[in-house]
Structures are given as C-alpha cells and as structure tokens.
Amino acid sequence: MTTQEARFSRPDPEPPVTLDRRDGPYGEVALRRRGDVHEIIANGCFLMDTSDGRSERLLVDAALAALPPGRERPSVLIGGLGVGFSLARAAAAPHWGRITVVEREPAVVDWHLTGPLGAVSAAALADPRTEILRADLVAHLRTGTAAYDALCLDIDNGPGWTVTEDNGGLYSPAGLAACRERLTPGGVLAVWSARPSEEFEEALRNAGFEGVRTEEITVARGVPDVVHLALRAA
To answer: Which among 51, 65, 94, 199 is placed 20 to 30 Å from 87, CA to CA?
Structure first.
C-alpha cells in the first residue's frame, strides 16, 4: 500500500477511469487509473495505489534489518499482494530465500499476471524464489504449518481500520498467536499501518513478542505511515 496521504486524501482533479470491476469473494474490487497512477478499490474504499511505495518497501527492509545477524537466505511471507511494491522489494534483495505471497482476491492476482500492475511485479513474479498462494491470510496463518523467518503483513489500512470485518481476527490475541507460531525462533513480524497505534504495540507485547517498536514514514499531510515490528523469542 501507499502513503497515508495517497490512501485517504490525495486530491487530484483528474477523474479516474475504471479498468476492471469484479465481484470477489469478499465484495467488489476495482482497478482504476488516474493519469499514470493505478488504484485498487475494495467495496468503494480506496486501498492503495502506485503513486509512492516508500512505506511498502520499508515493510520489507525493516523486517530484513531486524532479523538476527548471520541468518542466511531467510524466508519471508508477504501478506497481501496489493500493487506489488513489497514483493518487488523482496525479490530485488538477494538476501531473501523463499518469498511467499498470500493474496485472497483473484482479481488482484490477475491484474499482476496479465494486467497493468505487472509493470511493478513482473520481474518479481518470474523470480524462482517467489510463490503466490491464493488464500485468505488469516486462515493461512491459523491452519498452515510452514514457518517463516519474517511475516510482512499489509492487508488493511491498519489494525484499527480493517478492509473487511473478518480481518480483525488477525490483530486479536488468537491472530497474533498464530503469527508467532508461523515464525521461526528470532523471526520478525512487520505490520503496515496508516497511523501509529500504542494499543497495537501493547497487544504485541501481550501476545509474547519481544523488541516491539514502530518505524515511521513521513507523509505530506497528517500522521505518518508506520511499520510495527516485533520479534519472536529466539
């Protein structure tokens, strides 16, 4: 996803052009173009666009930097394909090993594989380290058995502003426990948010995570985008 300014209040006099609109498993999703920027809309709510990408890249970079030193070829799960900035960032870094992306909206995957969002993600999707799982992230975390060195999650506008009601389970005690279980010892959980949340930091501590902290990305107006970071005990 993009900066908070772009997500919530980016003024632009040019009207958007809808390129595709579908009824997905969780409601309507649409791909729009506004000038040279592409936007994803879910159930009428602006989610993300291709205007920036700094905070999506920080999501991946901060997770890699927080890993214990000496860990070779760490695996990463990216929750939410979005417009592809996080995946592209991970694939551009030779340090990562297995790169798994979980995306529940078939339309979003299609817009990358055969549509205009491939301009961001084509090289990353062709990378042999990359695997796309067409699944619900919350369900995958709770029922899967694979372990990852890093979880980079960006499926909402933040823990307090979810895209669908079901996503709220990710930030619950049970959801955070599932995240912890999917991490290797010393692994990193990184969660994108449109605003800082002291309540979510406390929830991470209560869920047994260590080293809880928040990194900020300054935006043109309003509070910064953030990445919440936490570690599973080694």
So the answer is: 199
